[in-house]
Structure formats: C-alpha cells, structure tokens
Amino acid sequence: MFQYLFMKWSLCFLVGLIVSLIGFFNNLAVENIAGLKFEFGWKIVGRSKMAFFVFSASNMILTLFACLITAFIAPAAAGSGIPEVKAYLNGVDAPGILSLRTLFVKVVGSITAVSASLVVGKAGPMVHTGACVASLLSQGGSKKYGLTWKWLRFFKNDRDRRDLVTCGSAAGIAAAFRAPVGGVLFALEEMASWWRSALLWRSFFATAVVAIVLRALIDVCLSGKCGLFGKGGLIMFDVYSANITYHLADIPSVLLLGVMGGILGSFYNFLLEKVLRVYNYINEKGTVYKILLACLISLFTSCLLFGVPWLGTCQPCPPDALEACPTIGRSGNYKKFQCSSGHYNDLASLIFNTNDDAIRNLFSRNTDSEFHASSVLVFFLICCVLSILSYGIVAPVGLFVPVIVTGASYGRFVGMLFGSRPHSSLNHGLYAVLGAASFLGGSMRMTVSLCVILLELTNNLLLLPLIMLVLLISKTVADAFNGNIYDLIMKAKGLPYLEAHAEPYMRQLTVADVLSGPLWTFHGVEKVGTIIHVLRITRHNGFPIVDERSEDDSRVLSGLILRAHLIVLLKRKDAFMSTPVERGGGGAEFSAADFAKRGSGNGDTIDDLQISAEEMEMYVDLRPFTNASPYTVVETMSLAKALVLFRQLGLRHLLVIPKISNVSSLFSCLI
Amino acid sequence: MFQYLFMKWSLCFLVGLIVSLIGFFNNLAVENIAGLKFEFGWKIVGRSKMAFFVFSASNMILTLFACLITAFIAPAAAGSGIPEVKAYLNGVDAPGILSLRTLFVKVVGSITAVSASLVVGKAGPMVHTGACVASLLSQGGSKKYGLTWKWLRFFKNDRDRRDLVTCGSAAGIAAAFRAPVGGVLFALEEMASWWRSALLWRSFFATAVVAIVLRALIDVCLSGKCGLFGKGGLIMFDVYSANITYHLADIPSVLLLGVMGGILGSFYNFLLEKVLRVYNYINEKGTVYKILLACLISLFTSCLLFGVPWLGTCQPCPPDALEACPTIGRSGNYKKFQCSSGHYNDLASLIFNTNDDAIRNLFSRNTDSEFHASSVLVFFLICCVLSILSYGIVAPVGLFVPVIVTGASYGRFVGMLFGSRPHSSLNHGLYAVLGAASFLGGSMRMTVSLCVILLELTNNLLLLPLIMLVLLISKTVADAFNGNIYDLIMKAKGLPYLEAHAEPYMRQLTVADVLSGPLWTFHGVEKVGTIIHVLRITRHNGFPIVDERSEDDSRVLSGLILRAHLIVLLKRKDAFMSTPVERGGGGAEFSAADFAKRGSGNGDTIDDLQISAEEMEMYVDLRPFTNASPYTVVETMSLAKALVLFRQLGLRHLLVIPKISNVSSLFSCLI
C-alpha cells in the first residue's frame, strides 16, 4: 500500500518533470526555428521579392514536414488532441491516441507547424503530449519499442491510468501557459468526466513541479545560453504589473464587449465546424489530398501575411519609444516593412511576429497610439480566417493561442471605438485582454479555468472581476447558439461522449426500454467452445455470469467477467479442466499482473487464440476471475437515474436485473 | 424550465449581493468599533493604568455581548460554522444551523467578538453567514417570522438547497478575503461532498458578484465616507506588487519551513482539540459557566496583550519611515507604548493592531529591521495560545485569520534566523507569507484553494510556485500526525461525516453484513393505522413499498416513500379511502408544492398528527407518492462499492435487494 502511494506520487512527479521539459524544449525550438527563418529572410536576403520567396518556401517546407510525419507515422496526432483526450477520459479509448508514436509526432509536428507561421497554437498539443506522457508512464513504457519498466505494474489498470492522464493534461496546460492553477482547473472543468478530491491534490502536485522546473530553466536561459530564445520565449504577458483602475462607468462597454464576444465566438465555432466537415471530405480522398491541402493553406498563409502589410500605414516612430524603431528581422515591435527610415508599419508589426509576441503587443498598455484601428481590424480578420482554415490540416495544431490572438485584436479594436468616450479609464491593452477573454468564453465555454489561466498569463489579479464578468456573459450568450468547440470537433470526428446531465426524454424511459438483445451470459463453469463462440460472434466487452441453483431451478447472478480477462484465461490454458465438476481451476495460478491492462489497442484479441478441437470440449471455472460485485439497477429504474449512476461512478458496464423476487425479501435501507 | 433556470441564477445573484453587503458591513463595523475603542483608550485617557482599565472593560463588554446573544438566541451560531456547513453538505441537517436567528447572531456576534480584541477570525463566520443566506433564500425566507416568498417554491427541495448553500459558502470566503476564485475552490475542495460542473459555474457567478460589489463599495469608501474604515478595512495584503526574485538556493530553507509548518500545524490541531474537549466539559455545566469562561478568556487576553509589550524593546524610529513614528492611538505601525519620543515599541506595534493589520505588518517587505526576532517569537507564542484558548468560547469566532497571523509570525521568525545566510534572496515578509501558507496547510490541509486564496490576498502570482511547494509539504507532513482541523472539530461536536473513500476493512464485507433489522415495509395500498404505528415506533426516514403479486405469491419492490411525504399524506387526509380496492387516491389532488421541503427542523412530525380511530381503519394508496426508481444494490455487493455509490450520488437511502430471482432473467449490459 505504501509502495503504491509512493509510486503514484513519483509518477505524478515524473509526469510534471517530463511535461515541463518537453514544454520548454518546444518553446526553445519554436523560437529558434522561427527566429532563424526571420533572420534569414530579412537580414540576409534584402529585397522583398526574395524575402517573400524565402519566407514562403521555408514555411512550406516546415508545413510539409509536419504533415508528412503526421500522415505517415501517427495520424492520431493531427489536430489539437484536446477532444481526443477528453473522449478518453470519458471512457472512449480510441486506438493509438496515447501511444509513443503519437507523442513523438505531436511534439515534433507541433514545433514545425508553429514555426511555419501558420496561425496555430501549441497549447492543445501540449495537453495531448501531457496525456501521452502520463499514459505511457502508467503503462510502464511502450512494449512495442521494448521500453518497459516492471515496477510500474501496479498502474496497469483503467482507473490509475485515467487519473494519471488527468494529471498529465493539467500539466500540459501548466507547461503551455505557465499557469499551474489554471492547468488544474482546466483538467477539472473541461477534461475530466470523473473527479475526486485526491485527484485535485495530485494534479496540483504535477503542475507545481511544472511551474518550478520551468522557472529554473528560464533562470538558466536568462543568462543567454538558449540561442534566440529571448524574453518572449514562454508565454507570459505580465504587462500589467502596475495598478489599473476601472469604475462603474466602464461596465456598459465591458458588457457590450462580452455580448459581442459571445456572438462572435459561437460564430467562430460554427464556421470552424463547417470548414472541418469540408476538410474531412477532402481528407477522406487519400493522403496525397491531405498533403496538398496543407501545402495550399501554407501558401495562402504566406501570401496573406506578406501581402496584407501593404495595406498598413507608415507611421513615424514615437520619440519616446523604449525599443529600437524601426527594426527589421525577428525582434522588435516596430517593423520597418517598406517604410522610410524613422517610420514603422503598424500592421507588419503585428503580423511579422510569433503569435505570442503579437498577443503581447496587443495586450500592452501605454501603446494606445501605436496601432491604427483599421490595421487592428485587418489583423482580426486575418487571424480569424487563417486560424479557421489552418485547424483542420493533418498536423498537430492547437486552437488556444489563435483564439486568444483573434480575441485580443477584436478587443483592441472595440477599445479603439470606445476609447474616444470621456470617463473611460480602460486603456486599449486592457480591452484586448477582455476581448481575448470574451472570445475564449464564446468559443471554449469554460469559466473558472479560463479566468485563472488569463490571470496567470497577465499576472494581475486586479483584472479578476472584469474577466469574470466578461467570461460569464460571453459563455451565456454563446451557449444560446451552439456548443463548446471541443464538443463540436469531437462530434465531427465521430467520438462518442456521454454527457453528465440526462436529456429530458430520458426521464420518461426506464432502463428496460433501451435494452437491446440478445444478451450472452456464461455459467460459472463454462465450456471453452461456448466462450470462444460467444466471443467471436459478439463485440461485447463484459458478460454476466449466471448460474442455476439446483434446488429450485432459480437463476442467480454471480458477477461480471470482462472480455479481456476471458482472453487471458483462454490464452494461458492452464485453467482448463476436463470435467465441469472439478473446482479450483486445475491448479492454475494467476497473479494480478496477468490481467494487467495493456496499452490501448495492444491487448490480444480473440483471433490471436489457438485452441485445439480437444481443448474446445474442456471446461474452465470462471468464478475466481469474476467481478462479484458489479453495479446493478432494477429494470424499472428511470433511464435518467441510470445515466447519472453510470456517469458519476465512471462505469463501463451496468447490469439490469428483473424486479420480481420470490424469496423472503431482504430489502433494507442503509442509513 | 426557463423560469426555473432564471430563478436559479437570480438566487445566485442575490446570494452574492447579500453576502457581499454583509461582508462589507462586517468589516465596516469592526473597523469602527475597534477604532473607537483604541481612540478612546489611548487618546482620551492618557495614563496607562486607566488605559488598561478602559481597554479590558470594553473588551469584556463586547465579549459578554457576543456570548450572551449566542447562548440565549442561537447556540448553533457558536464557533466557526465551517464544520457545521460541511456536515450539512455531507447530508447532516442539524436543527437550527441555517436559520434566520443563527444568521443574525452570527453577523452581530462575529463583529463584537472580533472587535473585542480576541484572537479570532471572521472568515469562518462569513462562510456560515453565506450558507445561511443561501438556505433562507432557497426556502423562500423564514416561515417563522412571516418573511416568505411564494415564487421561490421551486427550490424547496434538498438538492437545490444544497447547491445554493455550496454557492453561499463560496461567496462567504470570497467576501471575507476578496478572493473570488479562492472561494469557489474552497467550496469545491473543503466544503462540498457532492459536486457537478454546473455548480462550478454557478458558484463562480456568485463570487463574481461579490467581487464586483465589494470593489464598488470600496470605491465609495475611499472617498472617506466610512468613518474609521481605512485602507486596511478589507483584508488585502497586496504588499508585493514589485517583482520578487528567488532562486534554487532558497529551496532548502523553504522546504524546512514547510516541514516545520506541517509539524506545528498538526500540533496546533492537537492542542485545539484537547482544549475544545475541556471546554465542552465546562460548557455542559450550564449557561453561566459558558459566560464565565468567555469572560475569563477576555480578561486573560486583555492582560496578556497589555502586559507583554513591556517585554518589547524600544527602538529608534527609522529616519526614512513612510509613516508617522511613533504614534499612539489606533492607526500607524510604529506604536510609542511607554517609549521615549523618537522611539517605538516593536512588540506593541504588532499587538495593538487588528489581526489584519498585524498580518499586513508581518507580510510587508523592506521592513527587515523593524522587528526584533525575540518580539516576533513572543508574538507567535501569544497568538498561538490565545487563538487556541479563544476558539471554544460560545461566540461566533473563526479560525482562518488566527492561523494566518500565527503562521505569519512563525514564518517571519524563521526568516530572521535564516536571514543572515548569504545568497538568500527572500526577505522576511516573504518568509512570513510562506510561514502562513505552511501553517494553513498544516492545520487546514487544503491545497489548491489555500494557494489561490493566499495569491489573491498577496496579489502576486510570482509567489505561486513557492506557496504551492510549501503547502504540499506541510500538508503531507501534517497528514502523518492527525486530521484536518475542521474534521477534528466536527468529531468533537459529534457531527457524523461520511468520507469519500472506503476504509480497507469495507472491502471484506458485503452490504448484507451490515444490514440491521427489523426492516419496515409498506404495501402499495396501506392501512392508515399501520403507517401511524410504524412511523411512531421507528425513526427511519424512508420505507420500501413492497407488494405481493397475487398470481405466484412473489414479492415486488415498487419503490421508496419518505417519512416526510407520508406525514403530508396523513395530515391532508383527503387521500384516505374506506376500502383497499379503490384506486386514484379518492379524488385527492396534490401538487408538488405540498411535498416541498421545509426549513431544517420546521417540518411536521408524527406527533403533530390528529387521526381519529375511524380514520385509523381507512386505507391510503401510497403508490402515486412513491419514488419508483430508487437506487438499489444486490446483497452481495461489496460494502466499499456501495459506499462509493452512496457518497458519489449523494444518496440518503439505498435499497438492498436479494440476489436470487427465478424469472427468465433480463440481465443486460448497458453500452
């Protein structure tokens, strides 16, 4: 018991450690690759035509690389990964989702896709990465590649694995945003279908490890040992360390921002879903089409990013600018882009930056005059279009950062419209923060976790009441139109999901109404041939064990046996007996490790078994391997209540038993 | 349905609004009463003997008032209230805990007790206040005092009331500490036994309202319209707005702080429990003893607070002090207390302040030379002793702030011991914050919620990794010794509590092993006399309805009926029938409102019924009033699994049914 607990905490520690290292490496690689690209494109190749060529070619190569490894090595790594992990935690273990291959492609693909200037994020992939790391650790490594640890055998079951994957997804958000509390809340609010208070503590531990390791690594990098990894390396827009003030007079404009953010967010979801459906259609045609689509998107992105800044205005550099102005190349907020010296192009300053830097620019205060309203509007439209078009490509791309950058530009634009009113004490940067909140609320529909993540990003708790207000409003408004973006993606991907609340029609039905037959049951001592036959003709994963009592011919439920355990029994064969009366399993000895849960999709199937005709006639005593206490409901139980039971307890099987019994009944109330 | 949702949100809004108003009033009153006391004691009465007399007499009067109203009006309001609310949310509805009387005494008593210079907090009482407000609103006011609202009838059931009480306790913490996110997490982690994601959102809404209302009220007060209510009125120790730095070299001392904090915190719990047991013994002797005990504690507190500063050292005022130095009277951090002019007494500066101000002093940075180590140690001991002695008195007193102030002085003392080491980048104020965290972790054993509350109090997210680390360590260390302080108090108060996890021995038992008889069941159509008889001789709250089928003499479970619903049926009498065959309840019509849940302890009991001998012979059809889908388990179900079912679904009754059935079984697996 003590060993188990110690191991569990060690695993959480390892998850935190590995996820933070991956997260840091991720950022380091993106900053360096994207940095080199910009340096090369601008500094070395001076002329704009050549610059465009270098820019779009390098983007194309990076995109192609991300798509190729995804399509050929691990197709499950495409997309954000949050819907898949959410479905896993709801009980749907789709094959390959949490494998080592997926992990590898997710990390490398996410780095290259983000470096390719696509408007995609790396937070979603980090969540999937965290889940993969946790799952691999709890399985004791990947058996396929010979990386296994014997001492992790305790955790080869669904429950411990699910708990650890929850911790892993919390650690993923913590590593992506440096938001440890936000990560825990994200896992609680959005990811987990099943939660208990011990999990709160354990995921908190994992994210604490992430926070501390990241802090130590950044301390190392601040001394300049990380190449082009600069201050902006890890997202943290602590641009509001000064006190901000706001008053009741600001509330109406904030309310309006929230309402519009909700409408726009739900519209964003709507468009994204439509585009995803079109892409699904294209992607089904074959791998070549997938790759072509991605290349097309990359080219379109390059053209748009390079062409649109011509619409921007050249503005004189502010005399009191804290940074160099104008600049060319990667760093610096005032981009020269075709302007005369002493001037900068405001649209280029937003576009020719990583998304992180663009968000930092939009959030920054004391820069109210830096951007024109028209430039911010154009940037908003570009982000909107590109992020919707880019999400569906076959590469590990996230949605979090694109939604934040789109929302921030929306908010800043609204702030500029309101900015001229008297008595407004909110600056444009603050509007950008609130805009990001409203867009996130309208699209992702989380509340507490988004609020805490935004607070941890901006590092200013005084913003709390306003962010809360905006989130509540935008979520409420958006809920009137459609669903959470991850749920929409899950539906588009065909992943089933069991909601926590019952639909109204379920109250009218009993469980007996929804039973489908035929039901296959086994006897406590069953013939091998019968088991093989039933396993072949059905796809059920659990079978009730029902015995007849010889005295009065009544039937008794002994328990439930799982398909996976039956296959282990049939494979080992040493529990086979020649006659049904024999007891004790023919002297066979099994340990719990024999029934350990394998990695997803790695278990044996019925087709792997080799059973001779003679063995078919033998018997096996199933009773020692039966779950003798399955959860049951009476057939007249309302379907809604059965759903609550199923979901709240995280069940996979629920036995329905008949209502009538003729024994001297032993009904009783506990407590 | 829409009306129900709208009402539910409106109620949350009202809870937030009322709780924030009460919280603000609370602070306003404390600041003004305590302020007046100090002004009068020092400024007007110059000499120290007279000052002591005025000080101790005013403390005595305030304490006496708090104790008298508690003892005579609402004894349930004594103590922090958090254990009671926690027990309520676990399913134990002790009488009077959430009544209007309790609310009144809680608010007024808490104000006077805190003003009486006792080392007690007002956060716990705020949680209880929030729960009372929520409960009263969900009941539609107090029937006893004629304050009822008809349109709140939807919420007169256990489930909605429990949800709203959870929101109320979140709002309470939010109002006490201005920590909206911390409040939600506190309700989730510490209070609620039963949680669903909709609740997260709703409690978040309530705390958002609290945050916004408090902010608006403080804006009003900043213009000086609130008497002596100054900057320090609402706890918010935002003393770390500047960037702080810390490095890996600081980790060992932080670890040590956490370990010692855990040991001290659990020792604090141990002492508090022992003292509570002694007090329980004294309090049982009668009201006079209760009052005498409280007066004694008040006198002891006054003597100690007034006597100990003589141990403090007189120090010269720092030439660069930002405040007046030395000062007499209430305000100011440098107290003169018997020192010559130009000097201040460091111990008096800590003691002659409200707890909030003392915490602010201890947390403040750039004051490393303000206090002597010996003074801080003495202050730590005083706080420890006084807070342990004060908690058990018959008045509404909390534990949160005393634990914080004790922990802060402990942390500052440790910081002073470590401070001389080279390479330490942590100042004494930061040590005080971490000390408070370690003491809270060691005593209250929360993690995420305490972390967020401390962050919201100090308003600096950079402290997050260190606070997380300290909390995890101190909780882990303290868990090795004893339990959470609220659980200990609950046990001392005799409140039952159903833990979420099963004890190991439960795995060896089946539910059949723990059934106690005799079980009383009713028929679908039952004789009134039988019902009355059973209700009189038992104290069961639920009864299974079991019918015999005429065809084959088998017994069928039809459902479960509640005692409260039976009493309503028997009281109304119009469902009575003269013969058992009649169907449809004799034309009686009941609406859902008839069965609405009353306020705790206000329902009718069996003794209130007047049934004539003739009516005793009549029949009543119970079937329309039965819960036809009660949750059931088979008798061979493991006790541990049944406990999980009971607790996770928040059940009050669980039916145990026999295993054997002779019907052609309709077993099946859902999904």
TrEMBL record, chains A, B:
<dbReference type="InterPro" id="IPR046342">
    <property type="entry name" value="CBS_dom_sf"/>
</dbReference>
<keyword id="KW-0812">Transmembrane</keyword>
<dbReference type="GO" id="GO:0034707">
    <property type="term" value="C:chloride channel complex"/>
</dbReference>
<keyword id="KW-0677">Repeat</keyword>
<comment type="similarity">
    <text>Belongs to the chloride channel (TC 2.A.49) family.</text>
</comment>
<keyword id="KW-0813">Transport</keyword>
<dbReference type="InterPro" id="IPR002251">
    <property type="entry name" value="Cl_channel_pln"/>
</dbReference>
<feature type="transmembrane region" description="Helical">
    <location>
        <begin position="371"/>
        <end position="393"/>
    </location>
</feature>
<keyword id="KW-0868">Chloride</keyword>
<keyword id="KW-1133">Transmembrane helix</keyword>
<keyword id="KW-0869">Chloride channel</keyword>
<feature type="transmembrane region" description="Helical">
    <location>
        <begin position="6"/>
        <end position="30"/>
    </location>
</feature>
<protein>
    <recommendedName>
        <fullName>Chloride channel-like protein CLC-g</fullName>
    </recommendedName>
</protein>
<keyword id="KW-0129">CBS domain</keyword>
<dbReference type="InterPro" id="IPR014743">
    <property type="entry name" value="Cl-channel_core"/>
</dbReference>
<feature type="transmembrane region" description="Helical">
    <location>
        <begin position="291"/>
        <end position="312"/>
    </location>
</feature>
<keyword id="KW-0407">Ion channel</keyword>
<keyword id="KW-0851">Voltage-gated channel</keyword>
<feature type="transmembrane region" description="Helical">
    <location>
        <begin position="399"/>
        <end position="418"/>
    </location>
</feature>
<dbReference type="GO" id="GO:0009705">
    <property type="term" value="C:plant-type vacuole membrane"/>
</dbReference>
<dbReference type="Pfam" id="PF00654">
    <property type="entry name" value="Voltage_CLC"/>
</dbReference>
<dbReference type="InterPro" id="IPR051280">
    <property type="entry name" value="Cl-channel/antiporter"/>
</dbReference>
<feature type="transmembrane region" description="Helical">
    <location>
        <begin position="430"/>
        <end position="455"/>
    </location>
</feature>
<feature type="transmembrane region" description="Helical">
    <location>
        <begin position="51"/>
        <end position="78"/>
    </location>
</feature>
<keyword id="KW-0472">Membrane</keyword>
<feature type="transmembrane region" description="Helical">
    <location>
        <begin position="199"/>
        <end position="218"/>
    </location>
</feature>
<keyword id="KW-0406">Ion transport</keyword>
<dbReference type="InterPro" id="IPR001807">
    <property type="entry name" value="ClC"/>
</dbReference>
<dbReference type="GO" id="GO:0005247">
    <property type="term" value="F:voltage-gated chloride channel activity"/>
</dbReference>
<feature type="transmembrane region" description="Helical">
    <location>
        <begin position="461"/>
        <end position="481"/>
    </location>
</feature>
<feature type="transmembrane region" description="Helical">
    <location>
        <begin position="98"/>
        <end position="120"/>
    </location>
</feature>
<feature type="transmembrane region" description="Helical">
    <location>
        <begin position="254"/>
        <end position="271"/>
    </location>
</feature>
